[in-house]
């Protein structure tokens, strides 16, 4: 029965079928009774019996016609079984009479038995096949009723059914996912584009959530039931799904919310909670968009530039820009060519057959003035061809590769063309609209800004780092440090940071902090800083103030990363809590300060000072190992000792003999 059949109509059909079957049985019962009675009464007469058997072939024929008349009221399988039965009875009576006339009595009995056996086997085989057919049809009907025909996932009914079938108290996470921009895809590319995106989302969810019960809840909403999966695990898997879909749609391909529950709890409650959290995330995405663009823009061609405003790294602009522009505008392939000397070489490709195009050596290089795309380099403006093969500038290798439509725009940095974006249509011809040109020009403009930002930022950082190095060298000269101490600790700290896997941002902060770590000694009086011999306890307390004083001085520099200040303030803290200025211990000490402390002491130990000779690298390493867990973080020490010796492992020259460095502690221990 179809799931959509109204209950009253289904009951009426069932009653109608039952009455029809009852009517058939009422006819067959008396018929067989009469058959048996007449057979007994004519057992002594052979000829009347033959006539009777021919006559008895008539009622089954009547029943055969009756079964046809009941086809509208009975299931097809029941009607077919009735027809086979009545035909069998008809043939049985007729053949039995014929066998009695033509064959001896015993032979006719065997022939009758054989015939009835064949009829019975055929009837049973048909009934078995009918049962299997009905079961398969019912299963298909159930599947069809519980599946979304577009994506192949469960629909709402299927999700509810399988949720109810879970073992009681099974822990699970219910996740709701709402797609962003589906209406935009439908508006720009038609419903076929939107349907293709829905199928892509379904396939991506199936690939990254293989054990989940997945369903399309309706429209652009999906639901996932993840048994024995925590919210944290759900988030990790969802990040992978987001990463895949971002390549096709750009940032924020969906909003999602999830909640942990147990089977047996009302599914509607879990869905409502997950839905609420999903809309919270959607609101946060809209607020972010509002912050970036100044208005709530629609995801359309006119607003495409606003979508990529928050992308700062050129690699992000290229990756997201290619994929999003291609998907938004419905092209097969997106390409980015980057300047390499006098030519422009293919750097990135996205979409259909993107990997095949570069295999042809003629397709992965642009030359000024050659072909349609080469005109970009000559004109310095966008060029396009909706019918590429018919263009007088079409290149034979592009035509052979199947290029039918193409648009290319230049990317500029400081006025010079440094790259070219191209969108290519291979499967069919496509009109190059002003909206398409606007979108691709927006990507090119954003990439140009990102390249300029990277270049300017690099120049500023180089200038800043040069100034910090000069300041560090001046500080070490005033403090009578060994020549080159600042540069060595900067390089050592950077090597150790890379070994520990620090992000680039923290590594840069550590490097800047190494340049400025002793800036607080500007506030230490010369009488203390340059005093020959042992410091008094009072003078030592003044010397220890250089960490906090340096923090105060550096805090007035607004562009410094907070981790730079952590290096300056905390590089004299000890793992056991006996350091200064704050007496921090263990992991309470910022990691950048723990890293720098090891590098600083190692360089001090291996450098010659007026009050001590230089230690050998091996001796210095043994001292670091001895202080692991006391003065230094043991993990940082292990990472440092695993590094190969730096290129400069010779003892450093001490400052001139007439300048005596102060001792760092009242006990004259090496720093």
Automatic annotation (TrEMBL):
Record-linked InterPro entries: Cyclic_di-GMP/3'3'-cGAMP_PDE, GAF, GAF-like_dom_sf, GGDEF_dom, HD/PDEase_dom, HD_GYP_dom, HDIG_dom, Nucleotide_cyclase
Record's compositionally biased regions (Low complexity): 650-671
Annotated region (Disordered), positions in chain: 643-671
Keyword hit for Nucleotidyltransferase: no
Sequence intervals crossing the membrane: 17-38, 50-68, 80-103
Annotated ranges, domain HD-GYP: 460-656
UniProt keyword annotations, A-Z: Membrane, Transmembrane, Transmembrane helix
Annotated ranges, domain GGDEF: 170-295
UniProt xrefs under SMART domains: GAF, GGDEF, HDc
Keyword Transcription tagged: no
Name of the molecule in the record: Diguanylate cyclase and metal dependent phosphohydrolase
Source organism: Truepera radiovictrix (strain DSM 17093 / CIP 108686 / LMG 22925 / RQ-24)
């Amino acid at each position: 029965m179809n799931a959509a059949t109204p209950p009253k109509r289904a009951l009426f059909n069932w009653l109608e079928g039952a009455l029809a079957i009852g009517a058939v049985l009422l006819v067959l019962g008396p018929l067989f009774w009469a058959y048996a009675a007449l057979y007994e009464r004519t057992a002594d007469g052979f000829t009347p019996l033959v006539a009777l058997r021919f006559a008895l072939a008539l009622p089954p024929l009547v029943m055969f016609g009756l079964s046809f008349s009941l086809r509208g009221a009975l299931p097809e399988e029941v009607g077919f079984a009735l027809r086979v039965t009545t035909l069998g009875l008809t043939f049985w009576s007729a053949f039995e009479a014929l066998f009695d006339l033509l064959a001896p009595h015993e032979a006719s009995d065997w022939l009758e038995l054989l015939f009835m056996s064949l009829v019975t086997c055929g009837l049973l085989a048909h009934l078995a096949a009918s049962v299997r057919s009905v079961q398969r049809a019912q299963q298909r009907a159930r599947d069809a009723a519980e599946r979304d025909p577009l994506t192949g996932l469960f629909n709402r009914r299927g999700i509810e059914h399988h949720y109810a079938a879970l073992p009681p108290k099974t822990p699970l996470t219910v996740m709701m996912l709402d797609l962003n921009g589906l209406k935009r895809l439908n508006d720009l590319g038609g419903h076929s584009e939107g349907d293709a995106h829905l199928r892509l989302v379904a396939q991506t969810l199936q690939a990254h959530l293989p054990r989940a019960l997945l369903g399309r809840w309706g429209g652009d909403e999906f639901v996932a039931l993840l048994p024995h999966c925590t919210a944290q695990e759900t988030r990790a898997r969802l990040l992978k799904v987001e990463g895949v879909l971002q390549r096709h749609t750009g940032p924020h391909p969906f909003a999602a919310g999830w909640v942990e529950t147990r089977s047996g709890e009302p599914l509607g409650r879990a869905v409502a909670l997950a839905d609420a959290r999903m809309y919270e995330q959607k609101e946060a995405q809209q607020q972010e968009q509002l912050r970036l663009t100044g208005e709530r823009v629609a995801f359309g061609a006119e607003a495409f530039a606003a979508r990529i405003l928050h992308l700062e790294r050129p690699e992000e602009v290229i990756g997201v820009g290619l994929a999003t522009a291609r998907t938004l505008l419905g092209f097969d392939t997106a390409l980015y060519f980057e300047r390499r000397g006098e030519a422009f070489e293919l750097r990135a490709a996205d979409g259909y057959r993107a990997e095949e195009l570069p295999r042809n050596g003629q397709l992965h290089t642009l030359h000024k003035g050659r072909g349609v795309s080469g005109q970009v380099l000559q004109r310095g403006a966008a060029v396009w061809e909706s019918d590429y093969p018919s263009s007088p500038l079409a290149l034979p290798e592009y035509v052979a590769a199947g290029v039918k439509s193409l648009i290319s725009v230049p990317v500029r940095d400081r006025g010079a063309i440094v790259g070219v974006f191209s969108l290519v249509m291979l499967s069919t011809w496509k009109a190059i609209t002003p909206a398409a040109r606007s979108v691709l020009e927006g990507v090119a403009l954003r990439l140009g800004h990102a390249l300029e930002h990277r270049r300017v930022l690099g120049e500023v950082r180089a200038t800043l780092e040069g100034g910090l190095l000069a300041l560090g060298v001046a500080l070490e000269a005033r403090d009578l440090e060994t020549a080159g101490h600042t540069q060595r600790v900067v390089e050592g700290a950077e090597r150790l940071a890379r070994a520990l896997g620090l992000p680039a941002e923290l590594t840069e902060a550590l490097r800047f902090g190494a340049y400025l770590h002793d800036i607080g000694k500007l506030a230490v009086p010369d009488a203390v800083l340059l005093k020959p011999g042992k410091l008094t306890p009072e003078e030592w307390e003044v010397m220890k103030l250089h960490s906090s004083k340096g923090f105060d001085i550096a805090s007035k520099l607004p562009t410094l990363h907070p981790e730079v200040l952590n290096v300056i303030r905390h590089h004299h803290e000890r793992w056991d809590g006996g350091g200064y200025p704050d007496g921090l211990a263990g992991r309470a000490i910022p990691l950048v300060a723990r890293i720098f402390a090891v590098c600083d002491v190692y360089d001090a130990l291996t450098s010659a000072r007026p009050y001590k000779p230089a230690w050998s690298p091996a001796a210095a390493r043994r001292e670091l190992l001895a202080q692991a867990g006391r003065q230094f973080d043991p993990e940082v020490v292990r990472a440092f000792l695993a590094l190969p010796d730096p290129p400069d492992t010779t003892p450093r020259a001490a400052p001139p003999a007439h300048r005596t460095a102060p001792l760092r502690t009242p006990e004259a221990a090496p720093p």
